[in-house]
Amino acid sequence: MGFIDVIKERAKADKKTIVLPETEDRRTYEAAAQILKEGTANIIFVGTKEAVEKGSEGLDVSGAVVVDPAVSEKTQGYIDKLVELRQGKGMTPEQAKEILLNQYLYYGVMMVKMGDADGMVSGACHSTADTLRPCLQILKTKPGTKLVSAFFVIVVPDCEYGANGTFIFGDSGLVQNPDPEELAAIAGSSAESFKQLVQEEPIVALLSHSTKGSAKHPDVDKVVEAAKIAKELYPDIKLDGEYQLDAAIVPSVGQSKAPGSDIAGKANVLIFPDLDAGNIGYKLAQRLAKAEAYGPITQGIAKPVNDLSRGCSAEDIVGVVAITAVQAQAQ
Question: Pick from 63, 84, 217, 303: CA 20 to 30 A from residue 16's CA?
Fold first, then answer.
């Protein structure tokens, strides 16, 4: 079975409830119909019954629960909780009501916060900032995590590198220009995510245009410092840098450029020096190598909420919901 098939089987084994707040988008319903048919998650739509019926016309989403914020008996409790959480920022009951009745992403996050859903998937028609803002305000960061970051699971067909062609690329979706401490945190979180989702040992390479001093530049120094910090913070993780991409994943090149290394040529978790590199890298793999690309998956939030690319397909949403469900199992 491929990566996503294994994830779906794991999701089915302990079914979780995932909220889909983007009920204005047809892809949400196409994905939900498949999710419900496959049995990978229970689904909640946030919206009016009329909007859901219209948006899902011709699809069987009868197994989903529809929650209309305007009439739900739980809305008042969500308003009270949002005021409590944001009172330091001056949130009033009137403002909280206005937000929750009109911004379904906030309502979905409150469902996760209050335990009425196990996770949320959004982003098909909202920006990453719109998806993650309510998460950071309401759910906060996971205990022991200093930084919320994002990664893609990349599955390259017929590939001998990584974990049978499976990699994590981080950060490829959120942190624009991480400093060494942030880059180290991304490396640690990405290793944990790889172990959780791929169920194999993470081998982490911090990437650069230099391998072990082959180039001199402040950008290289940043990666070298990040690797040093990460080794101190995560002594049990196989991790090193700085490596060029080929030195990180191709055994012969790794041994040539970094002889004696037990990381070079074997990496399955690739940490990019900044968001430009990470975003370009995952899209190159997706478009030129025909890789499956699942994400951006967030890590470091107290409960699982995941973003989608606005160019995603319904099939992409199905995959990210299954991943979110598996993340929720680990809570």
Answer: 84
288: left (phi over 0), alpha (psi -120 to 50) or beta: alpha
Residue pLDDT tens, the chain, 331 long: 788 999 999 999 999 999 999 988 899 999 999 999 999 999 999 999 999 999 899 999 999 999 999 999 999 999 999 988 888 888 888 998 999 898 899 999 999 999 999 999 998 788 777 788 888 888 888 888 888 999 999 999 999 999 999 999 999 888 889 999 999 999 999 999 999 999 999 999 999 999 998 899 998 999 999 999 999 999 999 999 889 999 999 999 999 999 989 999 999 999 999 999 999 999 999 999 999 888 788 898 889 999 887 888 898 899 999 999 999 998 7
The dihedral built from the CA positions of residue 41, 168, 330 and 297, taken in this order, carries a sign that is negative
User: 118 near 16, Cβ under 8 Å?
Assistant: yes
How many Cβ atoms from other residues are within 10 Å of residue 289's Cβ? 15
Neighbours of 268 (CB within 10 A): 25
* Amino acid (one-letter) located at 282: Y
Report residue 164 as tokens: 């049978």
Q: CA 129, CA 61: separation in Å to the nearest integer?
A: 29
Query: What sign does the CA torsion over 252, 258, 261, 264 have?
Result: negative
Dig out the tokens for 26 from the structure.
Answer: 């047809």
Position 294 in a domain: no
Give the CATH number for residue 310: 3.40.50.10950
> Is 314 found in the same domain as 184?
no
- Quick check: is 114 in a domain? yes
Residue 298 lies in a domain: no
- The residue range of the domain holding 24 is 3-140+305-329
163 plus 233 within the same structural domain: yes
